[in-house]
Amino acid sequence: MSNQPLLEIQGLKVAYGGIQAVKGATLEVRQGELVSLIGANGAGKTTTLKAVTGLQPIAAGDVRYLGESIRGQGAWDLARKGLVMVPEGRGTFTRMTIVENLMMGAYNRRDDEVQADIDKIFGIFPRLKERAEQLAGTMSGGEQQMLAMGRALMAKPKVLLLDEPSMGLSPIMVDKIFEVIETIHGQGTTILLVEQNASRALALANRGYVMDSGEITMEGPGAQLLDDPQVRAAYLGH
Ligand code: ATP
């Protein structure tokens, strides 16, 4: 792991009209890290990711990616540069097959390894391989989450932003999704993971941040946060 952060969020403020959703958040993600951002419903986690990917304007502060400010850049340009988000609600192309969705993830690539990468994705997600020709819209929530993650990986992200990947899934699917996140991280992908499932997200994380009412209130190694009495009481229910 190098010391140069790939992604730096500095004093970020984001507002919806008069409502301040993010009030000066600072966090960073370094090469090879899995960083988890946890917090209650409405804490401002999704808004933070939206500001990073240009989907919501930045009121104050800065976001730096690969050492450069990316304020004002759009989601498509950022994805082309390797900053790729899997949004809450997944956003798969429901009328396309699984294979077609994966191909869409590689739309901006010029190399000839797309097929080899589809095979790699099928290695990570055997369920997608079994259903390669099925329409994405007919798959279960967990399968669509896998597809959205697979599609994002097809873009060869330098930093993968995952917004609540376990939301609304059955316990078995939640296990599977966290297993896959661990695999993807183990294979070298740098990840910023936003989750309400604090215990699972912190257990996997190199480092974690806690967000409360738009502010980062704690940060530290994942294992340390997991053991912290305040975090346990507020986010783990014990
Ligand atoms: P969740 O886990 O529920 O998605 P979150 O931590 O991701 O929560 P955000 O979705 O970022 O929280 O919301 C932060 C605050 O901003 C909340 O008070 C929310 O009501 C508000 N908010 C989010 N989106 C909008 C919007 N489009 N217009 C107005 N207010 C919004």
Automatic annotation (TrEMBL):
GO terms for biological process: L-amino acid transport. One of its GO terms (molecular function) is ATP binding. Residues 7-238 form the ABC transporter domain. It comes from the Bacteria. InterPro entries: AAA+_ATPase, ABC_branched_ATPase_LivF/BraG, ABC_transporter-like_ATP-bd, ABC_transporter-like_CS, BCAA_Transport_ATP-bd_LivF, P-loop_NTPase. PROSITE patterns: ABC_TRANSPORTER_1, ABC_TRANSPORTER_2. Belongs to the ABC transporter superfamily. This is ABC transporter ATP-binding protein. It comes from Ideonella livida.
